[in-house]
Amino acid sequence: MKKWLSVVCLFALMGGFTACTKKKNTSEKVLNLVTPAKFSGYDPAFAADLYAGNETTRVYEGLLEYHYLKRPYVLQPNLAEAMPSVSADGLTYTFKILKGVMFHDSPAFPGGTGRELVAKDFVYSFKRLADPKLQSTGWWLFDGKIKGLNEWRKKYENAAAVNYDDEIDGLKAVDANTLEITLSKPFPQFLYSLAMPFTVVVAREAVEHFGKEFLNHPVGTAAFMLKEYDQSNTITYLRNPKFREKFYPSEGEESDKANGLLENAGKKIPFVDKVVVQIMVEDQPRWLNLQKGSVDYAAIPKDNFSSVVQADKTISKDLADKGMSLVWAPQLDVTYIAFNHDNKLFKDNLKLRRAMSLAYDEVKGNELFYNGTGLSAQSVVPPGIAGFVKDFKNPWRQYNLEEAKKLLAEAGYPGGKGLPKMTYDTTSNTVSRQMGEFFAKGMEAIGIKVEVVSNTWPELVKKTNNKSTMLFGIAWGADYPDAENFLQLLYCPNKAPGSNSSNYCNAEFDKIFAKASVMQDSPERTALYEQAYKMAADQVPWIFGLHRTSFVVKHNWLKNFKLTEFTHGLEKYLDVDTNIKTENSKKL
Amino acid sequence: MNIYVYLLRRTLYIIPVILGVTFLIFILFNIVAGDPTPLLLGRHATVEQIAELHHQLGLDKPLYAQYFDIVKSAFTFDFGRSWATKQEISQMIIKGAGPSLSITLPAFFIATIMSVIISLVASYYRGGKIDIVVRFCCIAGQSISSMAYILFFQKILAFKFGWFEISGYEFGFPEMIPFILLPIIIDIVLSVGPDVRFYRTVILDEIYQDYVRTARAKGLSELVILFKHVLKNAMIPIITYVIIQLPFLILGALLLESFFSIPGLGGITLNALNSSDFPVIKAMAVLSAVAYIIFSLLTDILYTVVDPRVRLK
Question: So what's the ipTM on this one?
């Protein structure tokens, strides 16, 4: 009798537990997103990382944006009526601003009602990036590029306050709807800056009204408005009822139609009423919440990869049966092991660099650390950008121990004799350390001793800035889809503490780069980029790693989802099919 | 000595302790840890920008002035803003304390009551089967890392069985209940092992005292001896153990909060550690030091209540 009583009690307890979860409403048009990190608030002047950029651009918009479906990435007007007219000397860009765009309602405005966007708002927003009191992390975008802006910044460096009403030659609101930007030197990549989260438009009233709390009270023009962000781990956005008429794209890549990405072509966006973003720092809860349907899509944690993605890059059967699918796309990035060329050992020692490159088994590294999904990097520019040379094989990028040993002997270090013990600096997380150990093991095979040194990220940055490393493992992701953003990593004037942290200098390379980087997009420029690409491959300034691939699992109820490197403003294109969601949720 | 003089003296002790804590923090973050500005300004920072930010953060001041700044922030509780989230740290602490306490407080009370009862039962059956099973379970339970419990319980109880929410938090009662139940259960499981082992030792120490033998000789029942006499005498070490844990309740549970997306101080601290958010780490270190001092003072006062033989001097 007692036994039966225990069993009954246990079931009663379990029954009680089932009431401990919240009921999900699958009939609402709600987008459930997840982000893996807390972010630095809604001030676009500090939207330096991906996560801050994503949240900021849910409420704010800029002059330009990337076409959602087209690849290679193409810029298109967002708050501008059209792409700008450019003066013959390539210095002056004139934008016509869209009329009738309203800021979100906010107590910052008289009567609490948002006012119409004007050209002056962009002048103010761009000046904020230059404000020396603000120390925006986006200043590099405009530093030395807009006529008069550096002088304006300098003027207020030691002043108590900054006057935003000063006229600047390079930033003019000609009339309410005309913005004129004059550059101090030709810089064709400038337009990409205007599609970045740093350059979205803010209202001066909101910045002044909220003061230091501006970062918690975003007032933008975008399709969604912030409803709740109270330091909790959930952020809620509601559809902006005053959002202008904007439509889902009608063209894209060839495969987009087959993938159902053009089914909503020409329809008014946004499609959902609410966006809920949950901050989940750890992999497991993110992954489990996706499988339970609490999240619409998520990246696959490294440890789950092999059980989710099959050899032919399709999703496992059990997830497919639950109504999920796999989406993948190459990333615009490159991983590499940098030689510090400020160190005499590597500076003029091409044979040593080549020998070390040949001794690194990248194919095995790809298997071990990226589940074999990366694309071997032959040089510095990733595929999908003009300047990448298709089918090019870097002869120093193949695993060949015999050739490596031969070159090492020719360099004067037979069997590694005479070489000092090298150090390989990396960050202290487990995978980075393992990558370091894998590299050290590869070098050991030709007699080179490498010690792996773990650093916190600030320590590593400090070391590279001080030029005190020998070798270090790192990656670079595109700020914008132009080869210039990658080739500049090897441009001598950018030496540390600039972005050329390997301190590589090659007069011939610099000449090609300097010429190409100021040219408008053209076949001539692409030819120069390709020349620089091949030169970098030949000179082995780094041991090239790979270009990574993004893998995402999504629920089939999520419509219009296409992987993009530039995720800003993505949510306005996404839709949730509530019928499929109600049906599929039963299987989860 | 008057208890008020004692209290005043103990309160004044806070000053040298805070000076010591801030000195350690200063050595760790301002001297050993190195320059935080490249991290703050991002990968495109120029030398001029770094110099400007040094100035704004006061890192170009002489070291003694930088130390004074930290001491000042400890006494005024004005720690500025977080580097990572740009939020005001005092606000982060105020808002984070609630979610942390909503998990640690109930877990702590339940775990303490359960542990004391289990310890008494184990002590009653000392050396017997029940005692052996209790000891075995405690040691076995403690041998598994807390991370393993979290991963396992979250995956099995929340995901597979669907008994609880996988993660998340809602402010307000009863909205928070579905989200805090599983973290509380895990917290209890994590605490019971070490607690029972400690309480059992304390109680066993008492059980072999002369007064217990006398009580038995008088013919008192074992239950009366355990609950009325032994427990009362074991109270001092139990209170010390309990109160010393209290300040850490407000600081939350680092891993639990991180895995269950609870917006408490534990998650904030872990996030700050991962992102080298020095102002937040400094604030949490000072906060824990102050809380520790206050609660150890409270322990001393409670001793006099529990045991009249103890006098505060």
Answer: 0.86
